[in-house]
Amino acid sequence: MALASLLALSACDGGPGLGNRGGGAYAPDVVAPGEDSVDGLIVGHRLMAAGEYELALKSYTRSAADRGITVDVLSALGSANLKLGRLGQAETLLRQATEKDAEFAPAWNNLGVVLMERGKVAEAARVFRIAYGLDSGKTDSIRDNLTLALAKVENISYDAPEEATFALMRRGQGDYLLLAQQ
């Protein structure tokens, strides 16, 4: 019995037939040593364009492990969370991106989109102004976002509501109907 176990283990020596490089006892390498792997940001951007936001988020996370937490990675993670409807996470990541690099217009623009989605219109307009200034007005989407935010800010009304007078009309025993007259 012990001899059979020993023979079975010796057959699993990780030799070249298993695809290992260097004859190690570990799983085969995916990428040969010295070769570059596929950039997780590029893969993530392609997945975002294809509408695969959850997969893009995973790819961006792998990119963070490879590259570190750069402004590009933070912005990409924030954008994927925005598309997935995770507005709180998206806002946090995009704010971190703008703190890391205050000159990165795409992060400012995407932060503005998150703020608009959350109903923070005045702050979104301020953020879009920053993005527009950094971009020098070259990107149509940033200009359109700023225009929309400014239009919404102008439509916010702080007027007091019109006063209505109310009257009670008795309908039977203990049953009343509230009437509003304007």
Describe the structure.
The protein has 182 residues and is mainly alpha-helical. The chain is 58% helix and 7% strand. A two-stranded antiparallel sheet has the order 1-2. A hairpin with a 5-residue loop joins strand 1 (165-170) and strand 2. Helix 7 runs antiparallel to helix 8. The chain is elongated. It starts with a helix and ends with a strand. Mean pLDDT is 79; it is low at 1-24.
Relevant terms:
58% helix, 2 strands, 8 helices, two-stranded antiparallel sheet, mainly alpha, single chain, 182 residues, 7% strand
Topology:
Layout: H1 2-10, H2 40-49, H3 53-67, H4 71-83, H5 87-100, H6 105-117, H7 121-135, H8 140-155, E1 165-170, E2 176-181
Antiparallel strand pairs: 1-2
Helix pairs in contact: 2-3, 2-4, 3-4, 4-5, 4-6, 5-6, 6-7, 7-8
Largest sheet: 2 strands, antiparallel
Low-confidence stretches: 1-24
End-to-end distance, in Å? 96 Å
Number of helices: 8
Average pLDDT confidence is 79
Order of helices and strands: HHHHHHHHEE
Structural class: mainly alpha
Give helix % range. 55-70%
- Strand neighbour order, sheet with most strands: 1-2
Tell me the Rg in angstroms: 29 Å
Please tally the β strands and state the result.
2
Any idea what the shape is? elongated
Question: Approximately what portion of the residues adopt beta-strand conformation?
Answer: 5-15%
